[in-house]
Task: inverse folding
């Protein structure tokens, strides 16, 4: 399985790995604030289908994005087992709904490859790079800024 | 450097307070028989600004404050009389000083022309009032008076020298100043004879090491003007007694004890007031000064708003947690236990008290806004050539600080509107048997949990036929629509309505009263208008006490709980088939005492339900939106009415149409707060704000 390392050195970075529709994804650990279990959300009117709604995170209103729907895998039917990764992008806090968080992994910068051209799926625009491991595992690195709901697009 | 910025920021904060005190004092001086202390306070305010400005090298500010101060000094020494003409210049100087402070704070360019004009005026006054008695030399006169270094008057510039009495007090030494250094600096100006006077040194038994006993007399032979001497002593002038007399003049006895109580330029303003201090309190560096009446009970600290806001947020949390706890206890079946109940009750009480106290911290008197309006009136009166006086009532009424800031724009606009459109010109007024000077009254009061602000003028009232004509011309109403007087008055709030054909320099800046109305609505308030022909017009604004909490009606909609601001709700009723009427395929109307009110299916509007709901069994909430247009919102049920803490939705997500914010319910879940105005707007298919012909239906 993936190898965990707690310390950080030059040329390496830590990522949080998680699963979505049987695929492995990851996000830079610096962006992650906490990981919570799923709790019911309050639906937002006129929101895109990948926005599950909002939850109360210690007094702040935080939007939950259904990553699976966002990446085009279809909407998740959330249950107690699902997790919400609370991430911070610039000043915005967002919750990412995922199937499960698998590990925290240290990656060599050298092992991050650009997304191959052949991938013509919808998901490609949300992935910044592919991380390969010796055992054949692949982690897809999420571009948080692309995943975030753009408030403007649904106002009109 | 950051530290310097911080200190400078503190200086600007203090300037704001000083400027308010200044404007206030000047207004008191407009009344005959004003208190002499007022002049001193006004003088000190200007002097403190000058001092601080000098320390930060803000030269424009220093130069202007300096001349301003000179004239004020002539006023306080009774060499000038505070007649209306002079006071008008004083007011304008005060405005100009405020502009310069703002310019310095924003590092922008001030209006030089205006300043130059005022400086010329001030110089003229100085020449009139300052040259008649060159003998009476108080320290400040030398600093600034007829011997003004920039324009030395012939005959005085050629002084042979000065006699300087220098009596340091303990603060001089405590602040690390050294008389020897001052003497050395003096000696550079010319030949100085320095004598130490040890007559006041007490016997050793009475010796106090805190109190300096030595005094000096310096005879300085120099051609320098007096203000160079004043410059040397500039940093110590408030911790010593200093008397400078020209050698040719007779020293007129022991001069009065140093009354100049100002912060020395080097003084860092003490971060010690959250409220604007009385002008007399600006001198915190001098403990010997008798405290202003009630001054000691008003001890204040300056706290950053962010801290108060954080506290406010946490208390909001506390209130929510308390409600959650109560719910848990109830579900656990423990709510029968009297001890638990009593404890819970006490916590609830306490949380409420804390919330109230914190809100009180944020509350500030409306004075802060009202005072600015004097200037607006003055400028508006100048621009229109009308004579206008402003009367403020109830300026001690407190509202939330955020609200204060957001009230400035709408009130400014309303005041300008009243001067420009409300009041007639002087001749017309006299022809109508009114005094030539128009009067605008700005009043505020707490009224049943709300703040009521009124702007009223004693002008001609709304010219309704004219308003109607304009509205028809602009296509705001259908020609010949039947409107009652109140409805015509409401037309003033329509977007695109401006009663002046030409854009007037004053209120015609592309902002109409519709913007005022919008701004007030955004604050959770409403504007009403009342006008009597020939008597004047009154605009009333009703505002909530705070922006952080909203009185809301909790409603049920497709399993979601939502909050409707109570200020929009007019009435609620069961959707009884007998009062419902269909129009076309989906249109439905509610007939309510003869009025036909369109029904909005809120769930459909929010996309929570695909098929249109059956109205029967639901609850209708009649709300009033822009232009008094009424609509009925169809919801599944009403749960409760309570205060909710407003949480921003835009911070982490963005704007949701028809939703103004969110709140957290007792169970920790989020409920959305409905923006009734927007729901009505979007439901009528109008995405922009202009609702032409809306009033015609109303």
Result:
């Amino acid at each position: 399985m993936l190898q965990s390392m707690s310390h950080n050195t030059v040329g390496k970075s830590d990522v949080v790995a998680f699963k979505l529709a049987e695929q492995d994804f990851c996000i830079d650990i610096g962006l992650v604030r906490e990981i919570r279990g799923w709790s019911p959300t309050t639906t937002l009117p006129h929101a895109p289908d990948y926005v599950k709604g909002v939850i109360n995170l210690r007094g702040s209103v935080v939007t939950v994005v259904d990553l699976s729907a966002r990446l085009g895998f279809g909407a998740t039917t959330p249950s107690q087992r699902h997790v919400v990764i609370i991430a911070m992008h610039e000043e915005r806090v967002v919750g990412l709904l995922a199937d499960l968080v698998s590990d925290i992994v240290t990656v060599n910068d050298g092992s991050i490859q650009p997304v191959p051209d052949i991938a013509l799926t919808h998901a490609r625009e949300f992935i910044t790079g592919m991380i390969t491991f010796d055992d054949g595992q692949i982690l897809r690195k999420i571009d948080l800024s692309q995943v975030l709901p753009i408030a403007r697009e649904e106002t009109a | 450097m950051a530290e310097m910025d911080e200190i400078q920021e503190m200086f600007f904060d203090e300037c704001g307070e000083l400027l308010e005190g200044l404007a206030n004092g000047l207004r008191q001086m407009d009344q005959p028989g004003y208190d002499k202390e007022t002049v001193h306070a006004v003088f000190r305010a200007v002097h403190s600004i000058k001092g601080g400005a000098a320390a930060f090298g803000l030269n424009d500010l220093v130069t202007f404050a300096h001349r301003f101060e000179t004239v004020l000094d002539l006023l306080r020494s009774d060499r000038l009389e505070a007649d209306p003409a002079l006071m008008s210049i004083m007011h304008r100087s005060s405005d100009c000083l405020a502009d310069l402070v703002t310019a310095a704070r924003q590092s922008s360019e001030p209006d030089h022309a205006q300043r130059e004009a005022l400086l010329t005026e001030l110089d003229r006054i100085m020449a009139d009032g300052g040259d008649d008695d060159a003998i009476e030399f108080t320290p400040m006169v030398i600093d600034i008076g007829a011997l003004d270094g920039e324009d030395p008057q012939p005959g005085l510039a050629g002084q042979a020298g000065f006699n300087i009495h220098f009596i340091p007090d303990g603060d001089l030494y405590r602040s690390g100043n050294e008389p020897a250094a001052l003497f050395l600096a003096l000696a550079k100006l010319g030949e100085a004879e320095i004598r130490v006077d040890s007559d006041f040194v007490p016997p050793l038994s009475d010796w106090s090491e805190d109190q300096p006993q030595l005094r000096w007399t310096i005879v300085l032979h120099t051609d320098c003007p007096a203000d160079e001497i004043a410059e040397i002593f500039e940093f110590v002038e408030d911790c010593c007694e200093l008397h400078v007399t020209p050698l040719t003049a007779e020293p007129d006895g022991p001069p009065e004890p140093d009354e100049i109580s100002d912060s020395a330029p080097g003084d860092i303003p003490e971060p010690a007031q959250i409220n604007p201090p009385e002008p007399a309190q600006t001198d915190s560096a001098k403990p010997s000064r008798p405290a202003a009446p009630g001054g000691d009970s008003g001890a204040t600290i300056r706290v950053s708003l962010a801290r108060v806001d954080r506290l406010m947020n946490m208390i909001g949390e506390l209130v929510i947690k308390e409600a959650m706890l109560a719910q848990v206890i109830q579900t656990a079946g423990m709510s029968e236990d009297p001890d638990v109940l009593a404890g819970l009750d006490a916590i609830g009480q306490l949380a409420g008290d804390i919330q109230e106290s914190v809100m009180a911290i944020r509350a500030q008197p409306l004075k802060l806004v009202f005072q600015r309006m004097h200037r607006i009136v003055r400028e508006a009166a100048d621009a229109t050539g009308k004579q206008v006086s402003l009367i403020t009532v109830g300026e001690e009424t407190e509202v939330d600080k955020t609200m204060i800031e957001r009230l400035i724009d709408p009130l400014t606009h309303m005041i300008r509107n009243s001067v420009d459109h409300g009041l007639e010109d002087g001749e017309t007024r006299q022809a109508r048997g009114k005094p030539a000077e128009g009067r605008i009254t700005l009043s505020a009061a707490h009224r049943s949990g709300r703040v009521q602000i009124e702007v009223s003028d004693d002008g001609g009232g709304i010219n309704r036929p004219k308003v109607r004509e304009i509205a028809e011309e602009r296509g705001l109403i259908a020609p010949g629509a039947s409107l009652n007087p109140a409805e015509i008055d409401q037309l003033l709030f329509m977007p695109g309505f401006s009663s002046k054909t030409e854009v007037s320099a004053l209120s015609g800046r592309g902002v109409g009263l519709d913007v005022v109305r919008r701004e007030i609505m955004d604050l959770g308030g409403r504007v009403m208008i009342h006008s009597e022909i020939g008597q004047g017009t009154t605009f009333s604004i009703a505002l909530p006490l705070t922006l952080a909490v909203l009185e809301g009606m909790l409603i049920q909609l497709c399993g979601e709980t939502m909050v409707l601001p109570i200020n929009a709700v007019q009435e609620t009723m069961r959707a009884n088939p007998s009062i419902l009427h269909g129009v076309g395929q989906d249109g439905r109307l509610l007939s309510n005492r003869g009025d036909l009110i369109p029904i909005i299916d809120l769930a459909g509007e929010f996309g929570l339900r695909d098929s249109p709901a059956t109205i029967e069994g639901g609850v209708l909430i009649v709300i009033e939106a822009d232009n008094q247009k009424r609509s009925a919102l169809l919801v599944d049920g009403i749960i409760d009415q309570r205060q909710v803490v407003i949480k921003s939705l835009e911070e982490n997500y963005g704007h949701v149409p028809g939703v103004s914010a969110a709140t957290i319910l007792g169970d920790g879940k989020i409920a959305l707060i409905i923006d009734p105005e927007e729901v009505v707007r979007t439901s009528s298919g109008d995405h922009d704000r202009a609702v032409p012909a809306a009033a015609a239906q109303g």
